[in-house]
Amino acid sequence: MNLEFDGEELAFQTEVREWVGSNLPEDIRDGVMNGTGIVKEQTIRWQKILHDKGWIAPSWPKEYGGTEWTAAQKYIFANELAAAGAPALNPFGLTMCGPVIYTFGNEEQKAEHLPGILNSDVWWCQGYSEPGSGSDLASLKMAAISDGDDYIVNGSKIWTSGAHIADWIFCLVRTSTEGKRQEGISFLLIPMDLPGIEVSRITMIDGGHHVNQVFFTDVRVPKANRIGEENKGWTYAKFLLVNERNGIAQIGGKKRQLARLNKLAKATGMEGETLADSRTYQEKMAHAEIALNALEYTELRYLAGQQSAFAPGSEASGLKIKATELQQSMSELFLEMAAYYSLPYNGFRDMDGVNEPPIGMPEFTGGNEDFLYGRAATIYGGSNEIQKDVMAKILLSM
Amino acid sequence: MDLSFSDEQNMLRDSAERFVADNCGVENLRTVRDTEDGFSRDYWKQFAELGWLHLPFSEEQGGLGGTPVDTMVLMESFGKGLVMEPYFSTIMLAGGVLRQLDECALIEPIMEGNLLMSVAYAEPQSRYDLFDVTTTATKSGDGWTLNGHKSVVLHGETADKLIVSARTSGDRRDESGISLFIVDGNAPGVERRGYPTVDGSRAAEIILENVSVDADALIGVEGEGHALLEKATDEAITALCAEAVGAMKVLVDTTVEYCKTRQQFGQPISQFQVLRHRMADMMMEYEQAKSLALVAALKVHSDDPVEARKAVSGAKVQIGKSGKFVGQQAVQLHGGMGMTDELSVGHYFKRLTMIDVLLGNTDHHLKRFSNAA
After folding, report:
1. Contact (Cβ atoms closer than 8 angstroms) between residue A268 and residue A275
2. Angle, CA of A319, A322 and A324, to the nearest 5°
3. Cβ separation A205–B346 shorter than 8 A
4. Does residue B34 form part of some domain?
5. Closest to A342 (Cβ–Cβ): which among B122, B124, B357?
6. What's the CATH class of domain A245-397?
7. pLDDT at A97 over 60
8. Which of A88, A344, B116, B319 is the most buried (most CB within 10 A)?
9. Using CB atoms, which residue from B328, B347, B361 is nearest to A375?
């Protein structure tokens, strides 16, 4: 056993590094590296470049467009992309809905949806939470009532990321109110342009438009859009959650954040020196780096096929908890470092048409928005309290 | 020892809480944050009529001679209502400097509500050290010429006059050699760039380029401005701590209420032990913060400078820790709703995050506390 890459892996690393170096558009790299952020058009442009290369979905099976890379190759790939300043991909099609479709969908559904996900022509969002169903997702009520070859859908989804820029939504809907709650849920694909769908913006505490409430009023959806069997949607959703652990720790982005912290520390004065010379901050940075190492190698062990010694099956939950905690503590450290210059708000609100340069330190750009919206990370995707319940349930049933 | 509030203090709390409940809060915040001033001048006039602007000034100065505990009572109410008016910058910071002078013609218009002020103490390189000053004031004729960059001046854009710390002698990080000057906000050579702060309030970058002021613009003793500034900011910290305590009270109340109402898994989420314990922890963070905020208010004017400094910095550390826990957990327990601009929770959380930064964060005051003895 060793941690070194072998010759083939090193050659692969060089190949990826050189390719990204000459194919990642400058404006996209700058938006990621400088914290100014990127927009949908840029993500699509980058995803199409990856798609042309055949690298858009490394984890998918080869027959559906995947790469059949080893765990080490996937790790190298993710690391190289993040280090070069490549943006995160839209996960809703590529890591969430796509795998459900190729695993449980029929041939028509695969043919209809997988190409659009891979070439980024179709933008997806996820309809899970409802106003009364957050942590208790299985209590969801959005009704899909059978009407010939169609379902008539009524209800509402909330916290829907990117619904305002999406073409399709994959939804959990209630198709039965009998028996166990989990056994009356179906997995339904719905185009966002159907009559009866209304998207309502929810402004978050960073001033940004990330999420929405989506209202469905008598929306007629063909039954052909249902994935798998009726009332089996919960099983597919659970598959998706476990499958999602691939990359859930977002190690690459965190390494980039660590590098930005170091850059900010060097640019920031403290007691006549720079923050980077301060013992207090050196120790804080060391804590962050050690936590990142622990997270990275735990993820690597899992990706290499090892399981949790105590609760096999709970790996995604554990990674999600530690990853979001680390993300939040790193963004707090970012604020601490900027001191008074963490106070100016340069964010989204009322910034349309404003061309003045942001106030404060360029090294801190985006820091406030990351910190504020980052508070949602321990809430969404199953709150960390719920993840601990999942882990404890598996642990105690062993 | 007597830890009970006087009748006057109880009356002050009643009237402040009533005003805040009727007029302030998150709805008001959303309205005024998008205005040019970032606060209501009408409310400011009412503050004057209610005597709140007179509160901490001495009777000789025409004020009410209020103590830091009186201010604490008022600021705690302000914290409960997300008050946006520039009380902290005008009355606590600028007023806190001017109150120490033998005579000052600016105090009366301030108390009348006719003069807004702020103090420009921070600079891009200074972090939280009030003595780290590169802005210069050089003698020219009978007066002075100021040059430099002052950063994150609270309500700096709307301040009619500014108190600017500038170096009249010594090196960048010397405590001596700093003098304080009154500068007109509109004086030639003063460039102000205002912007919103993360909590929806306003601040400004202020660039001074060959700004000429008269000899009498220098307040206090030449080269001894740091002591004036430190005394004012210590008292201002006690006011900030009180504001934070008010904000935390609302967050604990709101979170308990929400958890009792919100149903998941067929029961109120307040039934889940992990959340019950979290709320118990939030409550104790609030209690400890309230205690040390009170100690700071009672000791800030102590004759023993070490005792005063430890009380102030100790309170700021506790407020930083408690405010972070209470703010973050209030958002967490509200789930997605806590993340929205619509609910008040996120706004209190942001205000607490901002208070931790103002006049020195937890790390800064931890160091100051341990160096105090």
Report:
1. yes
2. 100
3. yes
4. yes
5. B357
6. mainly alpha
7. yes
8. B319
9. B328
